[in-house]
Design brief:
The protein has 436 residues and is α/β, with parallel strands linked by helices. It is built from 16 helices and 16 strands. Strands 6-7-8-3-9-10 form a 6-stranded mixed β-sheet, with helices on both faces. The protein has a 4-stranded antiparallel β-sheet with strand order 2-1-4-5.
Length: 436
């Protein structure tokens, strides 16, 4: 690397790993041997599934957590605590409700010891820049979600950081508001009006990544690794309908649904095997609705994921979760950017309510090992009951507590629909009156 290029490197992540302890005492690896360089004048996107470690990497760069191994540097200096040249925009706005817009924006400057007159001048300029002129004295509760996120951007920009980190900054907003704010930020970037050198954005929205970024790092899951790097050479402003734009979006969908083993029944997004399989909660109404949509016109059993996401107004991550659940249960196959109904899925679409429940129950028993374990325990016990803690504890041998909660929630919901067993929320107990 030339000296000039080296001096333009803002962030240098080298072979970074990060693990977290599980309740069982062992560790779960979230990031493994991640390399990343961020240079001046670029927007870099971290794109991947939920749980792929994107936000963890962002927090390492922000100095909020430390790597388990590997090195992280900001402008040549090891990251040990929050670096002075980095600011962050959060998904949840993270505003102080008792402070006005102006006071919220001034906070970062106050922490840096900037005098009152300069704080006010710079904060008002940032508020004006992001389109909130006139709302300086308003409180967060008086603002819409989009306006509150604009305050978050102003607060991050007012300190004139070298690098602005963005953790899914548009995901808490409705579609139209997110699109407006996203477009405004890109316009300001193109015009050179943002007082920053580079941007690193975490997202699971594929179109958002292609629309905004110069480079996209696609993360694989379990543990999180950089699976591929994609350069986006399209000029700004970018047109979503441009054939090259659509082709790039399609290729990323294909990468993110590509299976490591062609014969494997599940995707990399579904963690673990056996009882240790992590399940994301997707309601049976949504599963049934997507099967019906795929079986009908214009899809006739097979749909292109980008088109399906756009038609159903679903983000890629949501669609992946639904598709993976259908694939796990053998109702559909998700591969190379397409979702295709299996013969079983087509049969499900044409059945009545009771027959659907029976087919769904058969699929759960056959392909969800935790369902089989709960069934066996209920059969073996004279009372035909079992506390949820019995299964939660076992799940924590394989996964984090949060994943165990999500997996049990999923199994409870699916089993209720299939009428396999009951669950009492108050006593947190599984039961079945008529054991199979």
């Amino acid at each position: 690397m030339s000296d000039n290029l080296a001096t333009n490197t803002l962030i240098d992540i080298n072979q970074v790993c990060r693990s977290f302890p599980k309740a069982s005492g062992s560790d779960v690896m979230v990031l493994e041997k991640v390399d990343l360089k961020i240079r001046e004048r670029e927007i870099v996107g971290l794109l991947g599934r939920s749980g792929s470690g994107k936000s963890t990497l962002l927090r390492i760069i922000a100095g909020l957590i430390v790597p388990s191994s590997g090195t992280a540097a900001c402008q040549g200096q090891p990251i040990d605590g929050p670096p002075s040249g980095i600011s962050m925009v959060f998904q949840s706005f993270a505003l102080f409700p008792w402070l006005t817009v102006l006071q919220n924006v001034e906070l970062g400057l106050e922490a840096k010891g900037i005098n009152r007159a300069e704080r006010r001048s710079r904060s008002l300029a940032a508020i004006d820049l992001i389109g909130l002129d006139g709302f300086e004295n308003a409180y967060p509760k008086e603002l819409s979600g989009g306006m509150r996120q604009r305050v978050g951007f102003a607060r991050a920009l007012v300190v004139h950081p070298d690098l602005m980190l963005m953790d899914e900054p548009f995901s808490a907003l409705d579609v139209l508001t997110a699109e407006t704010l996203r477009t405004d930020m890109i316009d300001l970037w193109i015009e050179g009006r943002l007082p920053i050198k580079s941007v690193l954005i975490v997202t699971h929205n594929i179109e958002e990544a292609v629309l905004m970024c110069d480079r996209i790092l696609v993360f694989t899951s379990n543990p999180g690794r950089v699976g591929s790097e994609i350069k986006v050479d399209l000029p700004h402003p970018r047109n979503r309908l441009d054939p090259t734009f659509r082709q790039l979006v399609d290729s990323i969908y294909a990468r993110m649904t590509q299976r490591a083993e062609p014969r494997a029944p599940s995707l990399e997004g579904i963690q673990g095997t056996g009882v240790g399989m992590v399940l994301d909660h997707v309601s049976t109404n949504i599963l049934s609705g997507l099967i019906e949509a795929l079986a009908a016109e214009p899809y006739h059993g097979k749909a292109d994921l980008p088109i399906l996401a756009q038609t159903l107004q679903l983000e890629a991550d949501e669609l992946f979760h639904i598709g993976e659940a259908l694939q796990l249960l053998r109702f559909a196959q998700l591969s190379e950017g397409d979702l295709m109904l299996t013969d079983t899925g087509k049969r499900f679409a044409n059945l009545g309510t009771d027959a659907r429940k029976k087919l769904f129950a058969d699929a759960l028993i056959s392909y969800v090992p935790l369902i089989g374990l709960i069934n066996r325990v209920l059969d073996e016990r004279p009372s035909h009951t079992a506390p949820a803690t019995r299964f939660h504890t076992e799940l924590e041998d394989y996964m984090s507590e949060d994943y165990a909660d999500e997996t049990l929630k999923t199994v409870i919901s699916w089993a209720r629909y299939a009428e396999l067993f009951a669950y009492d929320e108050h006593s947190e107990t599984f039961s079945r009156e008529n054991p199979t």
